[in-house]
Amino acid sequence: MVRTRIAPSPTGKDVHVGSVATALINYAWAKKNKGQFIVRIEDTDRTRIVEGGEAQMLKTLKRVGLVADESPEVGGPYAPYRQSERLDIYKKYAEELVTKGKAYYCICTPERLTKMREEQQAKKQVPKYDRLCLTDQKKIIQQIKEKDIHRVVRLLIPEGQIKFNDAVRGEIIIDTKNIDDQVLLKSDGFPTYHLGVVVDDYLMKITHVIRGEEWLPSTPKHIILYQAFGWELPVFAHISLLRNPDKSKLSKRKNPVWTSYYLDQGIFPEALLNYLALMGWSHPEGKDIFSLEEYIKVFDIKDIQKTAPVFDPVKLEWMNGVYIREMKNEELRIKIYEFYQKKYSEDLIEKTIPLIKERIKKLSDYLPLCEFFFKAPEKYEVDLTSKKDFFEKVKAELEKVIDWKSMIIGDSLVNLAKKFEIKNSQFFADMRMVITGKKISPPLNESMEILGKEECLKRIYQLTS
RNA sequence: GGCCCCGUAGUCUAGCGGCCUAGGACAUUAGCUUCUCAUGCUAAAGACACGAGUCCGAAUCUCGUCGGGGUCACCA
Fold first, then answer.
1. How far is Cα A323 from Cα A269, in angstroms, rounded to an integer?
2. pTM recorded for the entire structure
3. ipTM of the modeled complex
4. Nucleotide nearest to A106 (CA to C1')
């Protein structure tokens, strides 16, 4: 049985797109193997918790279509799925390690630790806890018993090498002399990430730990923990981080990173996932466009690339445009209607779809292009006041058109251009300006048909009067 | 700085020792279609970081250099 998980920390206001990429792989791997995909909230840092962050994250994950089999919301056999509700568990396991001699209490003050680190750095040494408290554990345990002094539990890093096989990076060897005696249980009784993940991944029977590359350097600590408990290791897979164009880790300083930002502009979840799937992986047949279902079918962890890709919103938009073009008209109509909170006539939207389907890349492109269908232009991108007299005549001619159909409108306009001895392109540009107020618009004849004769004449009148 | 990871065009990638005159996609440029803008089609330009080595043969294997990134907390 394959069980994967993502473990977001509600320290941001929404899901990071990089987390969606990680979630996608976890989800796909679980589904491919008929296993479960779990969402666990790692809210152990009370100082950094963002109000409403967790709820937003859960919402966005669902919105994007990565539905968890087990989560704080739907529950599951290993509940609770929120670390802040599992404090007793971590405490118990931390104490177990102390009893086994694999971990120890430390009562050093933050001030001492800071000072110690500064001294080590001044001597160009790797900052590491000096194990002062380890020298007299009995006394410290005695002190703790007598009065409830602040203390943490630290992992005792054994000497030697940690060797493990990463599913995407191959064999990794790290000498433990480079690893600090990591705090496992903080003085506030909350676990650190390291204790939390290991205990929960074990208890929740996670088989594949697929997470960002940033965790690679701390994986040896986790392995030491698994070994200290005597637990079997899961498969580790560290996937590359998404990057900014300057190659640094994708960050909100330099790029929009919140998933809702993209969704809210009318990027489809399907397109987002499709694009993200292509970050560090490619379809065996070289396809660019494929469904989640197909992805699950052909995806394999072993095909994940090691290099860290740059997240390119331009290609994302292009891909979303492909999704729009391939979408059925009625479906697109509904999407647009709902995207604009049902503010605009669905019938009218429907008529405009064939004109704009190839012209928009995301739903938010619709209104700038089509607003003139819903209301007459209030200003014109090019000033037409000098042409008032001319349009007076145009209006008179257009009034004669009986059958207001795009073909006929088109013919009439061409004839008018000839009659007034104006170049077609110029005439259409001017007409476009009168009708839409813009230099760029959907095809004019069809647009005029949709608007109707009365409205078009009214718009010319509005200019000339 | 220590440790770890990575290195094919501006970007995403294919490539697992000969099929590579290095393929595809986005972006770019040009042309065709055209009432604008798009779409569509066609074409162009553009990459194996560098240096040694192994081999009959290297983008592919080894080593070194350089470059980029990640990480070194009572944050995740």
1. 10
2. 0.96
3. 0.97
4. B74
